[in-house]
Design a protein that fits this description.
Bound molecules: 1-O-phosphono-alpha-D-ribofuranose, manganese (II) ion
Pathway: Carbohydrate degradation; 2-deoxy-D-ribose 1-phosphate degradation; D-glyceraldehyde 3-phosphate and acetaldehyde from 2-deoxy-alpha-D-ribose 1-phosphate: step 1/2
Largest sheet: 9 strands, mixed
Strand content: 15-25%
Main location: cytoplasm
Radius of gyration: 21 Å
Function: Isomerase that catalyzes the conversion of deoxy-ribose 1-phosphate (dRib-1-P) and ribose 1-phosphate (Rib-1-P) to deoxy-ribose 5-phosphate (dRib-5-P) and ribose 5-phosphate (Rib-5-P), respectively.
Order of helices and strands: EEHHHEHHEHEEHEEEHEHEHEHHEEEH
EC number: 5.4.2.7
Structural class: alpha/beta
Keywords: Cytoplasm, Isomerase, Manganese, Metal-binding
Shape: globular
Number of helices: 13
Number of strands: 15
C-alpha cells in the first residue's frame, strides 16, 4: 500500500497553453515572466527578496525541464540542476474555463466539459431581477459595485459607503463567480455567510460556479484588509471525482485549505483550514503524519493566486515561490517508502499580464517519492491524468477521463 500527497500551487502556470489565444492569453507565462523579471532586477523588493528567482528544490524535481517541455525555452536566469530526481512533465487543461474549480476538478479526474455562466463586463454585471431577488431574500437595502473588479480595489473604493449604508459590495471577474465583500464587524461575518448561501441558491439559474464571501476589516480605504475568513460556495462537481472514489473505497481524504470548499465538501473525510501558505504547509505536514496507507492528503496553496497573481505582484509571487521551495526538504524527510508527492497547479495568473484575471497556461506536474525513478512523461493533454495517477498509486479502479502517468 501507499499514500499520496497532492499539492496545488494555485495559479503556478508555466505558459503556452495550446488554446491560450482563445482566452486572450497568448504569451502569458507565470513562471517564465517571474523568472525574466527577477533576472532583470524587477523582482527585487527591499526587505523581501532580490536577484534571480531561486527554486533549487523544485528545479531538482524537474521544474526547469517541465517549463521547457511547455514552452520550448528554459526560464531565464535559473540554473539547471545537476540531477533531476522526480517524474516530471507539463499538462494542458481540457476544461473550458480557466477557473479554480475547473482546474481542481480536472486534476481530480473530472474535466468540466460544459460552459459556466459568466456576468457581462460592460454595464451592470448582475441582471436587475437577480439584484432585486438578492435584496428581498437577503434582506439588504441594495448592493454596491455590480461590476467586474479587483477585490482589493473595490473594497478601497466602496468600503466606507458600505459601512455607512449596510449595502454589501458585489462584484465578479472573468471567472464564473459572484463575490460579496462585507465588513466583518459593521455588517457581520455570520450575516455575510448567510447572504452568500441565499445568493448561492439564486445564481444556480445563471449556472454560476461559485459564490465567494470576502470579509474584510479596517476603518478607512488605506487600511481595509481582507481576512482569512473567505468562504467559497461551489456547485457540485459534474461527476464523482477521485476524492469521491477514494472515500467510497473507505480511504481517508484529508482536504487542507480551500480544497473542501472547491469540491463542495464532496469526497472529503477530514478537513483542515489554515491561513497563509506557510500555515498550509504546516497543516499538510501534520496531515501527512496522520495519513494511513491508502489515504490522500490534498492541499491548495492559495497565496500564489490570491495575494500575488491577481494583485500582479512579481516580487511577492517570487518570494512566495522561494519560501515554498525551501519547505520541500522538510516534506521529503517525512516520506515513507511507497509515498508519492505531486506538485501541480490549476491554471495560470501571470503577475506581469494585463488586467487582474487568471491566464490560460500549461501547468507543471512534479512527482517524487522514495520509490520513484526519475523520468519525463512529456506533455500530458489533460490534468485528469494527475487524478488517475493518484487512483492507480492508491490501488482503486481507474476513471474514464485520464490514465496514470507512472
Ligand atoms: O480580485 P479578487 O477578489 O481576489 O478575485 C479573484 O478571486 C476570484 C476567485 O479565485 C477570482 O475570480 C478573481 O476575481
Ligand atoms: Mn486557482
Ligand atoms: Mn484566482
Amino acid at each position: 500500500m501507499a499514500r499520496a500527497f497532492l499539492f496545488v500551487l494555485d495559479s503556478f502556470g508555466i505558459g503556452n497553453a495550446p488554446d491560450a489565444e482563445a482566452f486572450g492569453d497568448l504569451g502569458a507565462d507565470t513562471l517564465g515572466h517571474i523568472a525574466e523579471f527577477c533576472a532583470a532586477g524587477a523582482g527585487d523588493r527591499a526587505g523581501l527578496r532580490e536577484g534571480p528567482l531561486q527554486l533549487p528544490n523544485m528545479s531538482a524535481l524537474g521544474l526547469m525541464h517541465a517549463a521547457k517541455l511547455a514552452t520550448g525555452r528554459l526560464p531565464v536566469g535559473m540554473p539547471l540542476p545537476e540531477r533531476v530526481y522526480g517524474v516530471y512533465g507539463a499538462a494542458s487543461e481540457t476544461s473550458r474555463g480557466k477557473d479554480t474549480p475547473s482546474g481542481h476538478w480536472e486534476i481530480a479526474g473530472t474535466p468540466v466539459m460544459f460552459d459556466w455562466g459568466y456576468f457581462p463586463s460592460e454595464g451592470d454585471a448582475f441582471p436587475a431581477e437577480l439584484v432585486e431577488a438578492i435584496c428581498r431574500e437577503g434582506d439588504i437595502p441594495g448592493i454596491l459595485g455590480n461590476c467586474h473588479a479587483s477585490g482589493t480595489d473595490i473594497i478601497a473604493r466602496h468600503g466606507e459607503e458600505h459601512m455607512r449604508s449596510g449595502k454589501p459590495i458585489c462584484y465578479t471577474s472573468s471567472d464564473s463567480v459572484f463575490q460579496i465583500a462585507a465588513h466583518e464587524q459593521s455588517f457581520g461575518l455570520d450575516r455575510l455567510l448567510e447572504l452568500c448561501q441565499v445568493v448561492r441558491r439564486l445564481v444556480d439559474d445563471y449556472n454560476i460556479g461559485r459564490v465567494i464571501a470576502r470579509p474584510f476589516v479596517g476603518d478607512d480605504p488605506q487600511n481595509f484588509t481582507r481576512t482569512g475568513n473567505r468562504r467559497d460556495y461551489s456547485v457540485l462537481p459534474p461527476e464523482p471525482t477521485v476524492l469521491d472514489r477514494l472515500k467510497e473505497a473507505g480511504r481517508g481524504v484529508h482536504a487542507v485549505g480551500k480544497i473542501g470548499d472547491i469540491f463542495a465538501h464532496q469526497g472529503v473525510t477530514k478537513l483542515t483550514k489554515a491561513n497563509g501558505n506557510m500555515a498550509l504547509f504546516d497543516a499538510s505536514l501534520a496531515a501527512i503524519e496522520e495519513a494511513e496507507d491508502g489515504d490522500l492528503v490534498f492541499t491548495n496553496f492559495v497565496d500564489f493566486d490570491m495575494l500575488y497573481g491577481h494583485r500582479r505582484d512579481v516580487p511577492g509571487y517570487a518570494a512566495a515561490l522561494e519560501a515554498f521551495d525551501q519547505r520541500l526538504p522538510d516534506l521529503d524527510r517525512r516520506l515513507k517508502p511507497g509515498d508519492i508527492v505531486i506538485l501541480t497547479a490549476d491554471h495560470g495568473c501571470d503577475p506581469t499580464w494585463r488586467g487582474t484575471d487568471h491566464t490560460r497556461e500549461r501547468v507543471p506536474v512534479l512527482m517524487f517519492g522514495p520509490s520513484l525513478r526519475s523520468r519525463s512523461f512529456g506533455v500530458a493533454d489533460t490534468f485528469a491524468h494527475i487524478g488517475e495517477t493518484v487512483a492507480r498509486h492508491l490501488g482503486i479502479a481507474p476513471g474514464p477521463h485520464g490514465r496514470s502517468l507512472i
